[in-house]
Design brief:
The protein is α/β, with parallel strands linked by helices. Helices cover 29% and strands 27% of the residues.
Length: 385
C-alpha cells in the first residue's frame, strides 16, 4: 500500500476531522493508499496543541503555510482555511507541485475560483478535488445506483438542501463565516452550497436559470468583547432552478435550499428525486432510512428501506451497523486517495467533487446573487473555463 504524505493547512475543525480519519485508516479494507500527516500549518500556534498531543510523528509545525509547501516530504495538502485565503493558498500549493484537497467553495467568488481552476489546468499532473462527504452515505450510494441505471424514468422534480440551526441564537458571537470580507458575498451559498449541489451535478442535471431568495436574518452579532458588530452575510438561501436532464433535454424544477437558521435542525442534508418510474427521499435526520417509491402501474405507494454500513470503500464494520458523519469523512478521503493513486474513482458516484463541478456551483451562486438583487430569474452560465 502506498503512503501519501500530507500537510494540513488550517488546523480548525475540518483539519482535525482529516487527522482523525487518517488515524482510523485501519478501519478501511483493501485500499490503494494511506495518508500520513507529516506537517501542519496554522497562523495561530495554539491550534498545534491538539495535533502535538495526538500525532507525535508530525515533523513540521509552521505558522507560515509557505514553509510547509517548501517541505519536500509533503506530497499533498488539505487546504482548510477561510474562503478569502483559498486562491492564494490553493494556487501556491499547485505551483509547488502538491496535490490538493480544498474545502468548499474553492475560491471566495467566481473570479478567485476561476484563477484556481486556471492554475490547475496549467499543472495537469496535480490532482485537485473539493471536500464534500454526503455523497458517501449508504442511502445516497443506493440512489446513485438507481441513477446509473436510469431507474427514475422522466425526472419530475429534484429537491436538495442542507439545514443548520447553529445561528438561531442572536447572541452567538460572530465568527469569520458571518463576515463578507472573509466568507464572501455568497454567505451561506459558499459555506453549504457545494454539499447541496454535489449529487445533482454528478447526475448531470444542469440548472439553466435561477430565482433566488436570500435572507440576512441576524444583521448584528456580539463581537465577544461587549460590542455589537455587523453580521453581513446571507444566513439562508432558497434557489428555484429550471433543471435540465442532458440525456433527454427535458426540463424540471430543481430546488436548492441552504440555511444556517433552520429551527429544529441540527445538521440535516437531504435529497428528494421524483420520477415517473421511481422516486426517492433521504435525509441525514434518519441516516438509515431511504424512502422509495417504485411505480409500475396501480397505486403508487411509498416504502422504506433500512440501509446499513454499505459503503463505496469496504470497511471492517458489518453491513448491519449504522453509518455516520465521521464515516462519511473517512469514505471521502478514501475516494481522494484512490483516485490520486489509480487515476480514476471506482464508480461514478464514488469520487470526490471535481473542479468542473465546483465551477458550475460558482456560476449558479453568482447568478443567485444577481437574481436576489434584481428580483429576477437569471440565466446560469454553462461555461466550464
Amino acid at each position: 500500500m502506498r503512503t501519501v504524505r500530507f500537510g494540513v493547512i488550517g488546523c480548525g475543525l475540518m483539519g482535525r476531522e482529516f487527522a482523525s480519519a487518517a488515524a482510523r485508516w485501519c478501519h478501511l479494507l483493501h485500499t490503494e493508499a494511506r495518508p500520513e500527516i507529516v506537517a501542519v500549518s496554522n497562523r495561530r500556534s495554539p491550534a498545534f496543541d491538539w495535533f502535538r498531543q495526538h500525532f507525535p510523528a508530525i515533523g513540521q509545525y509552521a505558522q507560515d503555510y509557505r514553509d510547509l509547501l517548501a517541505n519536500a516530504a509533503v506530497e499533498a495538502v488539505y487546504v482548510a482555511v477561510p474562503h478569502h485565503f483559498h486562491q492564494e493558498v490553493c494556487c501556491a500549493a499547485i505551483q509547488a507541485g502538491k496535490h490538493v484537497m480544498a474545502e468548499k467553495p474553492v475560491g471566495i467568488d467566481l473570479a478567485a475560483h476561476l484563477a484556481i481552476a486556471e492554475c490547475a489546468a496549467q499543472h495537469p499532473g496535480i490532482f485537485v478535488r473539493c471536500a464534500s462527504q454526503f455523497m458517501f452515505f449508504p442511502a445516497v450510494q443506493r440512489i446513485a445506483a438507481l441513477l446509473e441505471r436510469r431507474a427514475f424514468g422522466r425526472v419530475l422534480e429534484v429537491n436538495a438542501g442542507f439545514l443548520h440551526t447553529s445561528d438561531l441564537d442572536p447572541n452567538k458571537p460572530i465568527n469569520w463565516k458571518r463576515i463578507v470580507e472573509f466568507n464572501g458575498q455568497y454567505g451561506v451559498l459558499g459555506d453549504l452550497g457545494m454539499h447541496v449541489c454535489a449529487v445533482p451535478f454528478r447526475a448531470g442535471w444542469e440548472p439553466r436559470n435561477v430565482r433566488a431568495v436570500l435572507s440576512n436574518i441576524v444583521p448584528q452579532r456580539p463581537d465577544g468583547h461587549g460590542a455589537q458588530v455587523p453580521c453581513d452575510t446571507w444566513d439562508n438561501a432558497t434557489l428555484l432552478c429550471e433543471g435540465c436532464d442532458p440525456a433527454t433535454g427535458e426540463s424540471f424544477p430543481m430546488t436548492f435550499k441552504m440555511q444556517r437558521i433552520a429551527p429544529g435542525e441540527k445538521n440535516t442534508w437531504y435529497l428528494e428525486i421524483l420520477g415517473t418510474r421511481t422516486s426517492v427521499r433521504f435525509s441525514t435526520r434518519d441516516p438509515k432510512r431511504l424512502e422509495l417509491l417504485e411505480y409500475a402501474g396501480g397505486e403508487p405507494v411509498w416504502g422504506q428501506v433500512q440501509t446499513g454500513y454499505e459503503t463505496a470503500f469496504q470497511t471492517v464494520s458489518g453491513a448491519i451497523f449504522e453509518f455516520g458523519f465521521s464515516d462519511a469523512i473517512l469514505q471521502m478521503w478514501a475516494a481522494f486517495l484512490h483516485e490520486l493513486v489509480t487515476g480514476q474513482p471506482p464508480a461514478r458516484f464514488a469520487g470526490c467533487v471535481t473542479l468542473d463541478e465546483v465551477t458550475r456551483s460558482h456560476h449558479l451562486f453568482t447568478a443567485a446573487l444577481a437574481s436576489h438583487a434584481n428580483q429576477s430569474v437569471e440565466p446560469v452560465c454553462q461555461d466550464r473555463a
